[in-house]
Amino acid sequence: MSTEVLDVLIVGAGLSGIGAAAESSDSDMYTLGFKAKPWRKARSIVDGPSILNYLREMATESGVASLIRYGQRVESADWSNTRCEWTVTVRDRDGHAHSIRTRFIHLCTGYYSYNEAYRPHFEGEADFRGQIVHPQFWPENFDYTGRRIVVIGSGATAITLVPALAEKAAHVTQLQRTPSYVVNQPGEDPWARVLSKVLPAALVYPIVRWKHILLTSFFYRLARKYPRWFGQRLVELAAADLPKGFDVARHFKPDYNPWDQRVCAAPDGDLFQAIAKGRVSVVTDTIERFVPEGIRLGSGDTLPADIIVTATGLKVLPLGAIRLSLDGKPVNLADSMVYRGAMLSGIPNLVLTFGYTNASWTLRADLIAAYVCRLLGHLDRHGYQYAVPVRDSSVGEMPFIDFNSGYVLRALEGLPKQGDRFPWRVHQTYLRDLGVTRYSRLTDPALKFGRAPG
């Protein structure tokens, strides 16, 4: 098996990976976009192809594109305390394995499995005469024109899919066991449209970006401080966009507080518009079983369907399922604690990127990429070969993510912990993280630096 040697290995070539590589070489697009590449369009909520095109441009313009190796899967990484380096086992799409020796790993692998989704079994699935589809494995060129579709779910995937499917389907029914908060979010930013007429693009982007960051932070803090009032306000805003007589309390008023689970956005109120036009119905009920003609509900009613879409959630996959070990001893991720939202206790020279639950993923990804650059610079300047967070036994444990969405709760047992105080606490506040990550002292008693023995 061949071996190559690198200084830094970035695993992943999505938003986080490309951003990290660009930083080291030098859910609106104003905050989802990279600091190094301004989003210059007035429309802030865009479709998948637009985001993919933006990523490709970013990778090409920054020179990162030539460094990406596609079709590679990292299987394991073993740290040697003697050599102060990682040995990483990689397998390509043809099944051939090779190893990479690197002194530092930055994991930008995302947080869910691409190969496996959360897919509960429903009684009577084999009896259903139509087609059952999961959004994560959408059939290519799938034609649903004129079909009756039932989408099971109430999360971001369902809220996005339902109005899009309604454009061609005969009718779409969103079937949910419990509702979510949904807000009408303008797809085009009025500030960007106005400012772009009087200011150069180099000024428009940071102004609009900071407007989005500050507003998002303000509303999040408001929601957490006054949850009942804020939740009721979200319901009232939804009611204003829905037809008179629509049962808003039943279908859009959850029994949890805003941001205990994600608040979903409907770009330009597309979901509400589709409901108002009669192209979409919302049903809040339980599923008794699938039947040949559709779904029988707990209430005894039957929803007719030609196609059932199971938008039932994703499966969290920590570290991209990479097996970590230290001198050959396997690492149990659940035994570690997150340091500054970026490193793991007891694991040297490894950083992972995990974005915000209440804001654009890339905001924290940018901060962590900058932190990696600062950390590598400190190691080089002082001749250190490794940095490792050392856990303080007096620090209390808390769940890694303070979020009660189903996909998070199902995964918590296998995730690292966070602590009850700095630097072990994971905050969901960009402004706080900005100060800590970019401008505070890099060193503290919890982070140990050193060199190989001898």
Q: Would you mind describing this structure in some detail?
A:
The chain has 2 domains: 3-26 and 62-114 and 316-450, FAD/NAD(P)-binding domain; 117-314, 3-Layer(bba) Sandwich (FAD/NAD(P)-binding domain). Helices cover 30% and strands 26% of the residues. The chain is built from 12 helices and 25 strands. The chain has helices at residues 15-25, 29-32, 48-61, 156-166, 190-195, 201-225, 227-241, 248-252, 270-276, 361-382, 406-411, 430-439; strands at residues 3-11, 72-80, 85-92, 97-107, 112-117, 131-133, 148-152, 171-176, 182-185, 264-267, 280-284, 287-291, 294-297, 302-304, 307-310, 314-316, 323-326, 329-330, 338-339, 343-344, 350-352, 386-389, 397-399, 417-419, 447-450. Strands 1, 2, 3, 4, 17, 18 and 21 form a 7-stranded mixed beta sheet that branches. Helix 4 (156-166) links the parallel strand 7 (148-152) and strand 8 (171-176). The protein is globular, with a radius of gyration of 24 Å. The mean pLDDT is 91.
- Uncertain segments are none
**Radius of gyration, whole Å:** 24 Å
CATH architecture annotation name of the largest domain: 3-Layer(bba) Sandwich
Count of distinct strands: 25
Per CATH, what is the topology of the largest domain? FAD/NAD(P)-binding domain
Arithmetic mean pLDDT = 91
* DSSP helical segment count: 12
The CATH class of the largest domain is identified as: Alpha Beta
